[in-house]
Amino acid sequence: MPPSPRPLGVAPAPASYSLNLFPRRRCLPARHAVSMAASHAHDAHFLRRAADVADRSAGLASPHPNFGCVIARPQLETDDVEAWVVGEGYLYSQGTPCAELLAAEEAGEHARGATAYLNLEPDDCYGNSTAVSSLVQAGVTRVVVGLRHPLKHLRGKAIQLLRHQGIQVDVVGEDLQSKLFKEALGSCLIVNAPLLYRAAFHVPFSVLKYAMTADGKIAASTGHASWVSGKASRGRVFELRGRSDAIIVGGNTVRLDNPRLTARHVKGGHVPVRIVMSQSFNLPEEANLWNVHDAYTIVATQRGARRDLQKKLAMKGVEVVEFEMLNPRDVMSYCYDRGYLSVLWECGGTLAASAISARVIHKVYAFFAPKIIGGVNAPTPVGELGMKQMTQAIDLIDVSYEQVDRDMLMSGFLQPIPDLSPVIPSVDEIPSVDPEVSPYETNIISFYKTWDTFGAFANFSPHPISLPDENGDCFTWPTVEHYYQAHKFVSVDNPQARDIVQEIKQARSPEEAARIGRTRQRELPELVRSDWESTKIDVMYKAIKCKFSTHPHLTEMLLSTAGSVLVEASPHDLFWGGGREGEGLNYLGRLLMQLRSEILGTVQTTGKIEEST
């Protein structure tokens, strides 16, 4: 019998965590030990469920972690622990309600006296402690946490806040030290492996995927590769793409296969970016990847390569990024700066070997098809690595196998999941502000993604604003990004423009709103208001002014930056952001500093902070 299928994001506990994970405990009376074992079994069960719920975030929440929350309370009338669950939730996308709030809302009054299970310690990216306050207000009396947050400026903060509110917090491996938790801990590690790799190595979590025949070929000698694997395996590849922020191929793949690299079954508003690495820029002028209607495309190349083709692709909406020396390590550093959490490599053997040698590949998914094609010159999945003896071979870690129709899927890690626990201080040692990452030690404060220390300044932060809509009626916009994107098409006398505004207003996340607004602006420039270029700064300022006046804790955060330069650290937006090397205009940072000056002027004049109008 083949092994039972398992979702791509779920795997057994890594072997590196299977030994010496928990210290020995003193012996307990038999009755107490049985009771504790049963309690631990329930805790472990619900913690695994929280990790499973969190896995629904994969590919959607980036660059945030995958958060899941399960609220449960014992039901005396039933032994079915599944019936104990009264609420659960997961983070749908950055800028949307947190998992804890969604679970608490679903549980309602049943949350009082219950236990909340979190695969990962909540973060507080927005300065309002929504996750903590949701659990406190719901009446939860105990919280079980799988992992502390791996980012230093967030680690331990939520745990400390919960304990200060009188809630019992138990952390696996610290307060809960039973062997029953090994599998649950493994699930928590697996579901947020991308975040752990990113935090440890400062590159996105990278997965190499390939399909090969039984004799180890990924294509025929002619280069023809459609199709090596079966339809079911290709469906799993679409799932992998849907869980990734970006998909990388080399120039050879574009020339030979002309791929589309779409997820095909896109979840919500998430669409992975497609990245082509080509040192010589020897690429065709026409290719499926140059159609950016459904997905954005970036071409990474060496500085100065084929300027004429660069201009032609730019006119199609393809972004070209130049590097002094094109290599996988620098491209991954660039992806890290863009906030990508997970990257899927679907490249040929030469680029795969280069990426493995650069140590930026962390996991492999290999599909084996039961067919033989032969060919001395037929390409293989990985090119030359310089190894001369079998003893030099790289051993995969935590290997798993799964039959997918007629194919076999093997997956394993090239590098173990980083164990960040040794650097985690005890709760008594955690200061309210980590001196190692204090932003007040520098005159430049950068922000970009909403999980940054000052991520609340970003337009994607989940801070609603109430401003007039296209009809002049007061409307609560979910985020500044929703308001800004919609106003590209406001006041345009065209039914299609009005439909676009409605589409943006209903977008479930700021990422989705931004994708709709940017795509429609590029495809239908005639529907963009004629004064947009001269008006967009005023539109943005009106929105952020409303945001900070509506949420006083944001004003306090903004005033705390007095004397510092604020920079929106987008490496690609040269108007609102600062660019990769400071070449951007940084208009968002400028507007925030202007607002800060206005508020400070009001404070100095009146002695108190007044609401902005």
From TrEMBL:
The keyword Nucleotide-binding does not apply. One of its GO terms (biological process) is carbohydrate derivative metabolic process. Keywords: Chloroplast, Glycosidase, Hydrolase, Multifunctional enzyme, NADP, Oxidoreductase, Plastid, Transit peptide. Pfam families: NADAR, RibD_C. The keyword RNA-binding does not apply. Its EC number is 1.1.1.193. Pathway: Cofactor biosynthesis; riboflavin biosynthesis; 5-amino-6-(D-ribitylamino)uracil from GTP: step 3/4. GO terms for cellular component: chloroplast. One of its GO terms (molecular function) is diaminohydroxyphosphoribosylaminopyrimidine deaminase activity. It is found in: Plastid, Chloroplast. CDD domains: NADAR. It is an enzyme of class 1 (oxidoreductase). Residues 41-170 form the CMP/dCMP-type deaminase domain. InterPro entries: CMP_dCMP_dom, Cytidine_deaminase-like, DHFR-like_dom_sf, Eubact_RibD, NADAR, RibD_C, RibDG_C, Riboflavin_Biosynth_HTPR. Its main location: plastid. It catalyses: 5-amino-6-(5-phospho-D-ribitylamino)uracil + NADP(+) = 5-amino-6-(5-phospho-D-ribosylamino)uracil + NADPH + H(+); 5-amino-6-(5-phospho-D-ribosylamino)uracil + H2O = 5,6-diaminouracil + D-ribose 5-phosphate; 2,5-diamino-6-hydroxy-4-(5-phosphoribosylamino)-pyrimidine + H2O = 2,5,6-triamino-4-hydroxypyrimidine + D-ribose 5-phosphate. In the C-terminal section; belongs to the YbiA family. This is Riboflavin biosynthesis protein PYRR, chloroplastic.
